[in-house]
Amino acid sequence: MTSEAAVAKALEALDPNACVRLAQDLIRVPSVTGDERAVQDLVALTLEEAGLEVDRFDADLGRLKAHPRFPGMEVERREAVLVAGLLGQKGGRSLILNGHVDVVPPGDRQAWHTSPWSAHIQSGRLYGRGACDMKSGLAVAIGAAAALKKSGLPLRGRLIVQSVVGEEDGGIGSFAMADRGHRADAAYVLEPTRLRVIPAQAGALTFRLRVRGRAAHASVRYDGISAIEKYELVEARLRQLERSLNQHPHPLFSRYPIAYALSIGRLRSGSWSATVPDELECEGRLGVPVGMASAEARRQFAAAIADAAQRDPWLAEHPPQVEWYGGQFDAVEVDPELPAFAALRAAHAEEFGVAPELEGAPYGSDMRLLVHEADTPALLYGPGDIRQAHATDEWIAVDEIVQAARVVTAAAARYLAA
Ligand SMILES: [Zn+2]
Predict the structure, then answer these.
(1) How many domains does the chain have?
(2) How distant is the alpha carbon of residue 29 from its chain centre?
(3) Can you tell me the distance from the alpha carbon of 60 to that of 102, in angstroms, rounded to the nearest whole number?
(4) Ligand 1 mean position to 166 CA, how many Å?
(5) How far is the CA of 100 from the centre of ligand 1 (A)?
């Protein structure tokens, strides 16, 4: 069979409305990071009903946490339930479709115009926490696999749908999948990219920084050392580091004002308004340029702080303390010309009559775990706009879910059909 005929057969078997309904069903099962068992039950059932072989397992948290490359975790969790759906057989070509089921908390419920778990459709938009990031993407993956199964097309190898947990706080789910031995020649991670192809992704490293001062009564503040004022010296030096990391960004990042952002997200200092603060603690994230190892970024960060410290007598004697904790996302880049990626770009071009745009992503995702831990070249491609991710009244355009389902189904058929 020609690949055109295989694609036509797969698209005939695709039920795009079922993808939309599945996205709705997935949104209606709340699954804030750390609490994903119920939604994984639904995913496993759906994969089974579609006729896929299901590999469902509980990650061994203790063992994974002790792993030297454990990707970090920010919520307390008692379990991590993983589900994979397998189609075809081992050997030949293989392709992973990866999506995460966990979502960030909805935040202030009053700010939402209806329940975050309503999954209602209004004026062509599907609303709900996870609508964009990324239950629609996962529904597309499952829908594409179901279409391939239903089409009866003989495959040259295996299609694996990965439904993972814990993406939002580091990536324990995709890490566990790699540890389980799930590998493929390529992977599409269906994060919201507005149907652009993202073969390069910046890293993001979470840090904590402690700066010391010396307490004194505010009326004689000159007798004390303000940790806030000392922090300002460090912060100025960190801005300089950010500029130097952004001097020559990767060409796919040229549209961003700052490709690799260094941002302080939390800051706490002092214990009393009339006391000179003797300690400041802050937490933030350091963006890692594409092409730079995380270890090198950490080294430059430490060097910048040491440089600020040695210019100030107090800081030289009381050097700020740096700690790396929580999500540690390496930067990653893959070759967009690999056959599985060429198949995706061709399928997109076929659907829209124009080739997809290539872009770099300034945020982290599970892409780097597939590449680094599972030896599986991965890129991001999926429905939805990242600006809707984590937002109040999060939504996705229903049309985009349908388009993504058609492109991913066609790409999988093009790449895998015998
Ligand atoms: Zn996501």
Answers:
(1) 2
(2) 20
(3) 18
(4) 10
(5) 7
Same domain flag for 54 and 108:
yes
Cβ burial, residue 111 (10 Å; 0-12/13-18/19+): exposed
Q: Are residues 70 and 157 in the same domain?
A: yes
264/282 Cα distance (integer angstroms): 7
User: CA of 57: how far to CAs of 40, 81, 138, 180, in Å?
Assistant: 10, 6, 18, 9
| pLDDT tens sequence across 95-148 | 999 999 999 999 999 999 999 999 999 999 999 999 999 999 999 999 999 999
Tell me the CATH number at 195. Answer: 3.40.630.10
Q: Which domain holds residue 370?
A: 3-201+331-416
Question: Which residues are found with C-beta within 5 Å of the ion, ligand 1?
Answer: 133-134, 191
| CATH (domain of 259) | 3.30.70.360
Q: Which residue numbers are catalytic?
A: 102, 167
Residue keyed to tokens 């030949």? 92
Ligand 1 centroid to residue 33 C-alpha, Å: 11
pTM of the model: 0.91
Look-up of token digits 């999500």: 327
Q: Last residue of some domain: 287, 304, 329? A: 329
Residue 102 Cα, ligand 1 centroid: separation in angstroms?
Answer: 8
Cβ count within 10 A of residue 321: 12
Find the 99 Cα to ligand 1 centroid distance in Å.
Answer: 8
Helix axes 136-151, 37-49, angle to 10 degrees: 20
Which of 277, 305, 329 is the C-terminal boundary of a domain?
329
Q: How far is the CA of 202 from the centre of ligand 1 (A)?
A: 15
3-state secondary structure 257-321: CCCCCEEEEEEEECCCCCECCCEEEEEEEEEECCCCCHHHHHHHHHHHHHHHHHCCHHHHHCCCE
Same domain, 229 and 180: no
* Cα 313 to ligand 1 centre (Å): 45
Mark whether 178 and 31 lie in a shared domain. yes
* 3-class secondary structure, 64: helix
pLDDT, tens digit, 9 for 90 and up, residues 356-377 = 999 999 988 999 999 999 999 9
